[in-house]
Amino acid sequence: MKAAVLGASGYGGGETVRLLDAHPAFEVSFLGAHSKAGQMLGEVHPQLANSDRVLAPNGDIPDDIGIAFLALPHGASVHVARELVAKEIMVVDMGSDYRMDTDERYQFAYGEPHAYPDELSDWTYGLAEWVDVSGTNKVAVPGCYPTATTSALIPLAAAGLIDPSTIVVNSLTGVSGAGRKVAEPFMFGSVADGVSAYALGAHRHRPEIEMGLKLFANVEASVTFTPHLVPMQRGILSTCTAVAGEGVTTEQVQAALHAAYDDKPFVRVTDGPPQSRWAVGSNAVIISGLVDYHTGTVIVQGAIDNLLKGTAGQAVQLANTMVGLDETAGLPMSGLMP
Amino acid sequence: MKAAVLGASGYGGGETVRLLDAHPAFEVSFLGAHSKAGQMLGEVHPQLANSDRVLAPNGDIPDDIGIAFLALPHGASVHVARELVAKEIMVVDMGSDYRMDTDERYQFAYGEPHAYPDELSDWTYGLAEWVDVSGTNKVAVPGCYPTATTSALIPLAAAGLIDPSTIVVNSLTGVSGAGRKVAEPFMFGSVADGVSAYALGAHRHRPEIEMGLKLFANVEASVTFTPHLVPMQRGILSTCTAVAGEGVTTEQVQAALHAAYDDKPFVRVTDGPPQSRWAVGSNAVIISGLVDYHTGTVIVQGAIDNLLKGTAGQAVQLANTMVGLDETAGLPMSGLMP
Amino acid sequence: MKAAVLGASGYGGGETVRLLDAHPAFEVSFLGAHSKAGQMLGEVHPQLANSDRVLAPNGDIPDDIGIAFLALPHGASVHVARELVAKEIMVVDMGSDYRMDTDERYQFAYGEPHAYPDELSDWTYGLAEWVDVSGTNKVAVPGCYPTATTSALIPLAAAGLIDPSTIVVNSLTGVSGAGRKVAEPFMFGSVADGVSAYALGAHRHRPEIEMGLKLFANVEASVTFTPHLVPMQRGILSTCTAVAGEGVTTEQVQAALHAAYDDKPFVRVTDGPPQSRWAVGSNAVIISGLVDYHTGTVIVQGAIDNLLKGTAGQAVQLANTMVGLDETAGLPMSGLMP
Amino acid sequence: MKAAVLGASGYGGGETVRLLDAHPAFEVSFLGAHSKAGQMLGEVHPQLANSDRVLAPNGDIPDDIGIAFLALPHGASVHVARELVAKEIMVVDMGSDYRMDTDERYQFAYGEPHAYPDELSDWTYGLAEWVDVSGTNKVAVPGCYPTATTSALIPLAAAGLIDPSTIVVNSLTGVSGAGRKVAEPFMFGSVADGVSAYALGAHRHRPEIEMGLKLFANVEASVTFTPHLVPMQRGILSTCTAVAGEGVTTEQVQAALHAAYDDKPFVRVTDGPPQSRWAVGSNAVIISGLVDYHTGTVIVQGAIDNLLKGTAGQAVQLANTMVGLDETAGLPMSGLMP
Prior knowledge:
The structure is a homotetramer. In chain A, about 25% of the residues lie in helices and about 20% in strands.
């Protein structure tokens, strides 16, 4: 099937190209970009093979494409995604334009009404282990923080093991999570050897996390979310804390995680706390949880590669299911260490 | 005044030597070590000047010493600290042997009774901005995590702005926090480019944090504490979350911090969230807080250099006050960036 | 074909397992280890899928294996490699025991005679772009530094564009190049944020580089070789300098590189200097060269991933050819950025 | 003495402020900036104490200043430095405008004639261990690479132990060496975990290195210079190779280094190769050399902190001597590890 990648010059777009180049069923036949249109692929992604391919303007996407992967900044997918669907091209939107289920939640996260509020419910929010996208033609890929966080919390919230009104999430992300924007906060001199939190009490992924817990665990959650920037290229580790249900044990917590995930090829439940690098380079989610009996809280963690399971990997996983392939087709099962 | 550093071969000991070498009033006249006794200082700390000084066995400390800085592993200070005091040598213990106020708390943290439980109350727990050590002769330097964490929480707990039974602390530390132990978890290959939490629900600094809140804010706190190892050499950032008191505002939170610290030379209260590197290389604590009105929580953060304000710097600050000097004598006021 | 990996617990062994797990023709049916035999794969390589496989003692390798990959420390392959060959198992030795062509050179590098000096010439030194191993059954994989260095130098030496008696090589390696040895020089605290050279004038790879230039460019070279340890996980960049032949131009240098490599799938010749990360995560070699007309020297650089093209990737590339597959089978063509 | 820092918003300017704030004799009474004039010091250097000082336009420097430190980009000192001298203000220029001894050499490095070629010889090129600047009023601080490199080479070239026409220098620098420019090549995503060389055969510091060898060793040198960017904040390691003189031994090399430097407070000659971090945080130069008898070459290395001995530290060292203070006044003697 012919595939297009729009926004191929960014980090998420580059990873999508890399995955699709090695994929048994998709063939990359169009590479789109905005300001970098006209440049060779090798100029913007010197790590990619066949570096003499040329980036075209995003708008030049031809009609014979079967599936389009949109790796565009916030606000840039909202019109083009609809147009592609109208042309009967399947759309996997890695951006944030169609993730929210209601305009109210969209406004809460993004501060303004959606351009097509009535169409939000037509899109599937593709947290791949919790929704079946086979046969659908338009899917919104969850954000990176929400993927790591809700994957860890959903089984516990659904089983009533935690009080969803007391959730505190502290997430640590590699610098690639900020995208490829050239700005002083992301310079080596600003970032290396130090850590800081940002967007305290105000990150756009907080409402998305609460939505995920509503959609897949059917709870009304209150989430205090503090993301931190850490001096590493890739990886997210979400440490989630919540008041434990009465008498809840570590064994129950781990059992609920195993029950949810033992048949899922990309999710691994570990006994001890995961390291983010165990997941980096693969499409894995690694999860572990326990009860802190001293304080009566549950601590549960999720680790992913923000550019793979958090973006391009989950996009390909979803596309696989959309077109009827095995969900693991073409995706790395093992991470890269050291 | 003649000063001795015991445990001079470790990270904290090395920093103590560096600070004292540049100090206007203390003169390093004895360098002690355990397994590395007999080696030249330059073999174990090639960054230090006058590298041809030789490390002596810790036990060879002469009697003409005025003040001893103990940078020893847990359990190694318990006897020697008493013996030095008996010889009328002032003691600044950077280790954990005399930090706890009661044997009950000591047992809770360290799993066994203290050798001299009746003497615990003779030692001053030296969180330098909250206790006056002038005229005392034996001081226990607080741990690195407790210093960053309680410095941020005490003013808010004391003012009733947070519910102390709901505190969640997520701390991020540089690798030097683990000390100089040669072990696979601290290899470059194990640590660089990734993050992980450790000692979930079980870290020894949790009871110490609760003790600090009792001593200086007079509250009974419950603290869920999750430390994380981050790929940087130095620095701690503690992100503390707690349920806000009814109607509490960000302005009240910041005002309480300013009221506590505006006259303290090493503490800076900032409007936005601090970066750990703003403190690294100096004896500073940098603190900021706000209310997340959506969830009704307070988020307050503290950043320090774990080897300076978290160990050797606070030790020298305390020693300055113990002997009647200005507390800033010989200590770096500015951090090192980039 | 059934494959065995001996020394699967090390860095090179782990990467071999990762590559073979995703390979279309080889099936990993035996995982051997020495001191870590008996442990689960997930304990030593938590990043690998199917982590519940168990490491067996290296010596338990069964007879039905078709090909064995040896990722053993220096000296540990010398007997077992022969025994496997005697059992008609193909051997790809990633270690250093059978790399040298003569016992004289072996002694020069390793300081003692080889156990089976007469058999050295039976092994093929597998610098994959310069020798055809199809149909052979015992191949020694070149070292990581020699692969990066001789790949860059051979075309220029063979064409007479440089004076081989004046070669100066400065190589920069990631810390994984030191293997998985737990020792103070490879701790995060020792390595991060700094650089140093080691084994000045005495590294074992220097004679191997000179041998490669003899074997494939037919020149007697003199190489001053200085390796440097750099705070990154993976990657080698070799910067090679030599006196240029009379009147030699940058165009001639680049033309010789293109002529040698334009038909090689894993080698890319770039106009400007390569970054090591362009190659990391793939089996690529990236090379560029120019003339410094001011000093009359040629500067040529080669970049690789030390664990892939420098170890496990080249091993699989050679194995592919040995058994008649396309040399690229199962190998990553693109690197991983950021 | 009242001191001004022009260009205080950059990395070198910030370090100058930090050093002068802790200096016993200089008082920072003016902070100048160009595009960041009007901002608070704490906005551009959050690590510095007294962060509420305001940056003024560089041109507003008052007349009562005794000494001015110029931390300006190339080309920005050329006029202002003369004007300050005319006002009888002492000038320490950390920029590159007055480093060259002749207009010919200036043109060779910078590609255009100097604005005041006749005045170049009025400035002292302040390689502090090799020239006495006491009593002078205008000094150009050497570049960072030249400081690390010529410090290592001068004693050997002066003693005839190396052939100066065969020098190959490979330098490794931390990212702060590129200054505070916001550009994609210096983003964390571009730099971390990888290495690359730049400006091959064309770096402006090459002629300056050759000039240093002429000025202080009286040799006509030919230097092939390849700088590399390494993922660390600070530090330079220069590895210099040259053909050894007939019969030259390691003992002679080390003896020449010791003879040159044993009475210099900031230079340390070590037996083994230095790590860059041994110097980082201090004004030290660490040097070591040996003969590679196999190839008949000398390898000599120099390590410094590029922002201290390579910029701000050497500037203060020179200023100390200019005004008659001990050259070590206010300067850190020990580095910062880990």
